[in-house]
Amino acid sequence: MKRPDEPPFEAQLPPETVLNQMEMAVIVCDRFSNVIYGNEFARRLFGFGGDDLIGHSVLSLGIAEEDHEQATELARHVLKGGVWEGTFCNLRADGTTVYTRAHAVPLRHPSGAVDGVVIFAREALRSNQREHERYGLLERVGERLAGSLELETTLRRVAETLVPQFADHCFIDLFGGDRLYRRVSRHAADWTPPPGTWAEVGEPVSYPAGHFAAKAMNRRDTVLVEDMVRHRFSAPDPAGRHLGDELGLTSVIAAPLLVRGELLGVMSVALSNLTRRPDPHYDAFDRDLMGAIAGRVALAIDNALLFEEERETALAFQKDLLPGERPPRLDGLEIAWRYEPARPLESHGHGIQTQVGGDWYDVIPLSAGRVGLVIGDVEGRGARAAAVMGQLRAALRAFAQDDKPPADILRKLDEWVRTMTRPQRQRSGWAPPGDDEVRAPLVSCTYFVYDAWSRVLEFANAGHDPPLLITNGEVGELTFRSQGGMLGLRSPGVGGEILFNEESAELKPGSTLVLYTDGLIDRRPRADGEYYTREESRELVRQAVAAVARRDVETIAGAVFDAVPGDIDDDVAIVVIRTSPEELAVEERTFPAEPIMVSEARRMAADTFASWGMLDEQAELACLLVSEVVTNVVLHAAATPRPRRELVLDGPPPVRFNSAASAADALADALDDMDEDDWSLPEAVSAASGPLAAPVPVPEPATEPLFDSGPSLDLPLTRREPATKEFRLRLRRGADAIWVEVFDSDMRLPRIRSAGETDEGGRGLYLVDQLASRWGARPTADGKAVWFELPLRP
Prior knowledge:
It is built from 17 helices and 30 strands. By secondary structure, the chain is an alpha+beta fold. Helix 5 (151-162) runs antiparallel to helix 8. The chain has a 6-stranded antiparallel sheet with strand order 8-7-6-11-10-9, with helices on both faces. The protein has a 5-stranded antiparallel sheet with strand order 2-1-5-4-3, with helices on both faces. The model is unreliable at 345-353, 424-436, 655-664 and 670-715 (pLDDT under 50).
């Protein structure tokens, strides 16, 4: 019995006391979605303490970014008087993730107006509607699995979705050949198992016959252990069993990972004392849910494995078409390079792509220690771009062996690229009508030839970005006077000409060139979601290079690659080259092209080789080959031709013609009458021009000239002796080899011929070919150069 003055029982029980007893989160928001009340369970569920929620937006409950639109829809729908229900992903203050099932109703004023929103929430799969709620978690798992095609990312996202929302421990074991290996080991509260207990990621796993994981794989069905205390299972090892007892494992589910009838591995989840849960045991609903999740995970793993296999194949194909991982050792140069394919494009919304591309670079040894350098980019991406890149690299290496100027090489490469059209199969829905050819690819590239002894860099450009040039620690750009058109820009059969201009520069000792493709500076995302402009990216690269300008080339290459933040949208190639700070050994001398000079050339070579410290055996061999090449030049290329008749354009013109063609015709007719060895002039020429010593002038007409107009041409002939021929011998020493070059003014390139048994000559170049490491001949501006290479050591 209560006393008369005692208040009624309902007055002693305020609403807040009742709400704090509820095992359900109650959140009240005003019309602007600001939280004005949250009960004690809400604080525990969402991981906030005190009054942290009050006065803040409902998004402060930790609603994941991908669910913000759904939260907006909740407010919009309920404030109109409707009822809303759905699932949210919430990030707690401690960094853990929890999925909640929310039920929202209008908060009405006594007058009937809607003043706010009341949200009732519980942890997903722990409500009375567990069978219904599991579909919400399945949807979340599907969204996470669809976000990646990379195996490690896929497995990590699966574990993050299940722990700690659905489990305290998650293990994924996959077969690698005949053995099972642990690929995922994730635990709640960032706990990690001590070493030597449970298998770590990457270690092999062997389950005994009675283990629940072994049963799941043998039965090809999900196995549920509701109470681990009542059902004891054999463990892989005693240490693992002991750890499980210490943690207090309460319940386990193991599900096989099956796809197309093939067993990929097993997935296990477990509950323990790491977290507090209202019911720390799985039941049949959870088993069915785990079976459905395992089916989706297996399909995602299979897709990721197939994609990675395809990607690895494509990348291996592409990298095999590029130079090796380590640059070659070259005299007078330090080289470092980087190649990085773009990440798969699923994160950019472009579907499945392997992301191989057409960026390429190369370093080509040329004659006499010279080096060809190229960097380029084929338009587009994918297998065709990589295939075109491989063909381009092979073609350029072949063309470069001709030792022609860079502009000539690019012209030849452009003609070759323009032929790379191919028939296209007509398919309904994608091939344009009447378009039965795929056009030639567009290619940008720059080809350099560097001579480390003279420090001269020759180059020609085809629409590529200029490289950075570091001189004395200062960063600038190598100036291109001509940008040039891209290779393949002019279609076959189209007139006009794309000009590739020859340019040159002298690099100072210790100068550094930084070559890169446009994947480094194109479409790099900023923090605000926009993209850096190309100029902004270039400036970031310049700043990064300036900070390490005096460091080694490997450091510079790394700084260039990391200069612009954000994922790359295209593959990137970077080449950094630095010239030697020291002068390289070279000796050079010009000789008259006379037989007696062969011994002089050999003597100069012997003295030079001795000063370089060559072994006697190698020096003697080198001198022998010097004699053969010089003798070949003296006997063949420098042979004196017969005297020739030349026109001398000195003195006043005695006869005027109305055109140069008429003069040439008259001269040709006169010369036809001359005997081969007779230097007397025929009457036709004598009459027109007079004797050589005293030309007879032709009388001028009284009224008008003989012809109306035209240039005059003096026809007297004179005998000129040919200038004395010379050859130049140049010797170069590198770290591991010496190069010998012989220059002369004859344009004819030598070739090896087969000498008969009784022939006195014809074996010189054969000896050079057999005894030298390499040899060849290249045209020069005023003749040719014959060269050979010999190692410094046998």
